[in-house]
Amino acid sequence: MDTVISVRNLNKTYDSGFQALKHLDLDIRKGEIFALLGPNGAGKTTLISIICGIVRPSAGTVLAGGFDIQHQYRAARGKIGLVPQELTTDAFETVWATVTFSRGLFGKPRDPAHIERILKDLSLWDKRNDKIMALSGGMKRRVMIAKALSHEPEILFLDEPTAGVDVELRRDMWQLVEQLRDRGVTIILTTHYIQEAEELADRIGVINHGRLVLVDEKNALMQKLGKRELHVQLAAPLTCIPEALSALPLSLSEDGLEITFTFDARDEQSGIAPLLRQLEDNGIEFRDLRTRESSLEDIFVHLVHESRPDETAPGRESA
Amino acid sequence: MNLHAIRAIYLFEMARTWRTLLQSIASPVISTSLYFVVFGSAIGSRMVEIDGISYGAFIIPGLIMLMLLNESISNASFGIYMPRFSGTIYEVLSAPVSYVEIVTGYVGAAASKSIILGLLILATARLFVDFHIAHPVWMVAFLVLTAVTFSLFGFIIGVWADGFEKLQIIPMMIVTPLTFLGGTFYSINMLPPVWQTITLFNPVVYLISGFRWSFYGVADVNVGLSLGMTVLFMVLCVGVIHWIFKTGYRLKN
C-alpha cells in the first residue's frame, strides 16, 4: 500500500516548555480515511499543524506525497488541504471571493467551474454572493471546507469537522467525506465523536500525551480490544466470589450485588451457560442478566487511561 | 515563484480598499485639503516665499509625504494584522508560498493604495495652489520608493502588534511627530543652528527634502543623501522581515 504521509520521530516542544509531541511515528496510506483520536491536549492539532506548515517541528521529519514538508514545502503543501478546528473566516468577503482567494493562494490558476462545483457540493451555491459574516456557524464551516478543497488537494485534514454542528450537517459532512474518499482523496480527521470514527474511518490512531498509543484497522481494533460482558444481578449480596468460581474471569461490584463476567466476543463458546450452571450449583440466585458489547469509546477510554504520561514505552504500530 | 498566490493576495487586499473606498480615499483627501485651505490659501498668502517658492506650493511635497507615510504604515500593518487577529493567517502559512511572495502581495497592495492616494492628493493640491514639477520621473520614483519602504515598515508593525492599540501607537507616537518636525511646513534652514543639526537625525527630513527637490529643484540636504537614506531604511525593513520569517516571530510557534 502506498504511503502518502510519513511521520518519523516527530518532536515538538513549545516555547513554554510544553512537550506536545514525543518521538511520534505515523504512516498514512493513500486513499484511506484515518481517524486520529485523543483527549484534549493530546497533540492532535499540533501534529496536524506541523504537517500543514503552521507549526515548526522541534525535531523529526514529515513527508507528504513524498516531499519533505520543510525543504520541499511548495510541493508538499500544494497537495494538502486543511480545515482547522476554529471557525476562522474573513467577515466582509463574499463566499465566492474567499474561496477564489484560497485557490490562488495555493498556486492554482483560476477555475470558476471548479469553484462552482465545490460550492454546489457543499450547498453554498445560493450563498456565493453573501458576506461570510452573514452566514450561520454551520455555513461558515462549509465555507472553510470549500476553501480547503478549492485547490483540489490529494490529502485533506479535517480537525474536528463536526464539533458543534447540528445532526443534519454532520450527516452531510460524513457523506462528503465518503465522496472525497471515492475520488481518491486521503482524509485524516480528528474527532471527539467516537461514533464518527466508528462510522467513517478505515484506520484509527489513538494519541495521548504526545505519543501515538496505538494505530490499527478499525475492524481489527474493535475485534481485538472489543469485549463482551455479562452482568448478573444477584438476589442477595455476596462478600466475595466463591472459591469454586475463582478460576473464571469474574468481578464483583462494591455492593456485592452484581457479578461481571468478561468473555471474548470472537469465541464460539461464550461460557455463559457453564457459568450460570455453576452459579446455581453454588446456590447463588440471580434476578437479572444483561450482556454488553464494548464500543470504540470503551476501547478509547481504556487506552487513554492506560497510557499515563510517565509511561516511557514508545508508540507502537501494530497495523 | 507562485505568481497565482501573489496575485490572489494582492487582489484580495485591493478588494478591501475598494470596499472601504470612502474611508480609504476620501478621508485622507479631505484632511489634506483642509491643510491646503488653512496653510496654503488662508495663512499661506501672508507668508514670505521660501527658497523662491510660494508657501502654499512649498508645503505640497511635505503634506503628500505626511499622508504617504501614515497611509502606507496603516494599510500594510492592518493588512497583515487582520488575518493574525481573526486567525485566517493559518491559510497563508499553510499555503505553498515563500515569504517573499507573501510580503510582495501584502506590501504591494498597501503601497499601491498609498501611491494612488498620493497622486490623488497631488491632483487635489492643484485645485488650491499653482505649481509645476521639475523632475516628474524622480517625483514618481520617490513616491514609489517611500510607499514601498513604509509599507514594509507597516508590515513589521502589523506582525509585531498584539492589539489594536499597538497598531496605532508607532504611527501616532513616532511617525507623525517625525513628519511634522521633518520639514513638512518649513525648511530646516529656518531653524536655529543647533536644531538644524538635531533635525538631521530625523530620517523623515531626507524623505521630504528629496521629494521637495523633485518638485522644485531645491533641497535641505543633498538629494543623493535623501535617496541613500530611503534605500537604507528599506534595506533595514527587509532585513527585519527576513528575520521575522526565519524565526517565525509572532507568526509560527
TrEMBL record, chain A:
Keywords: ATP-binding, Nucleotide-binding, Transport. It comes from Alcanivorax xiamenensis. GO terms for molecular function: ATP binding. Residues 5-234 form the ABC transporter domain. The lineage of its organism: Bacteria, Pseudomonadati, Pseudomonadota, Gammaproteobacteria, Oceanospirillales. Pfam families: ABC_tran. CDD domains: ABC_DR_subfamily_A. This is ABC transporter ATP-binding protein.
From TrEMBL, chain B:
The chain crosses the membrane at residues 21-40, 52-69, 106-125, 137-161, 167-188, 200-219, 225-245. Pfam families: ABC2_membrane. Residues 19-248 form the ABC transmembrane type-2 domain. It is found in: Cell inner membrane; Membrane. It comes from the Bacteria. Keywords: Cell membrane, Membrane, Transmembrane, Transmembrane helix, Transport. It is a multi-pass membrane protein. Belongs to the ABC-2 integral membrane protein family. This is Transport permease protein. It comes from Alcanivorax xiamenensis.
